[in-house]
Amino acid sequence: MENLKFYFNKLLKTQIGPICGLLSVIIGLSSDLIALSFYSGFNFDVNMISILGGEYSPGALLFNLGLVLSGILAFPLFLHINRILKEEKISPKLREATLIIALISCIIFTLVGAFPSLQDNELFSFLHGLFFLISMIGGIIYLLFYSVLFLRSTSINRFLSYLGFVVILIFAIFLFTWNPIIEWLMTFAIITWMMSISIYLLYKRL
Predict the structure, then answer these.
(1) What gap in Å lies between CA 52 and CA 31, rounded to an integer?
(2) CA gap 173, 90 in Å, rounded
(3) Are 119 and 86 within 8 A, CB to CB?
């Protein structure tokens, strides 16, 4: 067990976290756009993104698989961020709570893809909506906590903190409107946040 812990900690000190963060973004965005290109009748003013994973979407399998993989690949990124904040000894309780919420949100996000929104299956549609709502609320919470932690960090640029607050605002607007266009904006916002952090960590070799 001690050897396993040693190698796990050693792995976290590599750049595997931000690399996985970039892969999460690339796979998630690519699967969304490819599924969208296959769906000839998609209407941005009416259709929610979830329809791309439904039974009448030609790219449904790719879309749902992208959700699952992007959620799994986000795990190492959050563990990497936690290691950096831990080394700075920044707000241990808040840091640990943030990590737990972020990892749970990742798990719930994978379930969004595992239970797609199916018009002919009410149970799947209900679970899909429930998991999506929980992952979104979890996202708001961990984005808020990370933004606060980043403000206290000497290693992480404050721009990433301010970016987190902007993403939170977009999430909140979507929660109150459930507008399909805002949902796309929200998707690109969280992608931008994860991509920015991953690139920053790689560039700074943190």
Answers:
(1) 10
(2) 30
(3) no
Distance CA 132, CA 137 (A): 9
The answer to whether the beta carbons of residues 129 and 137 sit under 8 Å apart is no
Q: What is the pLDDT of residues 125-169, one digit of tens each?
A: 999 999 999 999 999 999 999 999 999 999 999 999 999 999 999
For residues 160 and 204, give the distance between their C-alpha atoms in angstroms, rounded to a whole number. Answer: 14
Mean pLDDT of the region 9-37: 88
pLDDT of residue 2 exceeding 80, the answer is no
Tokens 């690109």 correspond to: 188
DSSP 115: S
Burial 111-130 (b: 16+ CB within 10 A, else e): bbbbbbbbeeeeebbebbee
* pTM of the complete model: 0.91
What are 172-205's pLDDT values in tens digits?
999 999 999 999 999 999 999 999 999 999 999 8
SS3 helix, strand, coil % of the chain, rounded to 5?
A: 80, 0, 20
Instruction: Using alpha carbons, list the distances in angstroms from residue 140 to 9, 11, 98, 163, 167.
Output: 28, 28, 11, 13, 8
In order, the DSSP letters of 134-169 are HHHHHHHHHHHHHHHHHHH-SSS-HHHHHHHHHHHH
- State both tokens at 23: 């892969």
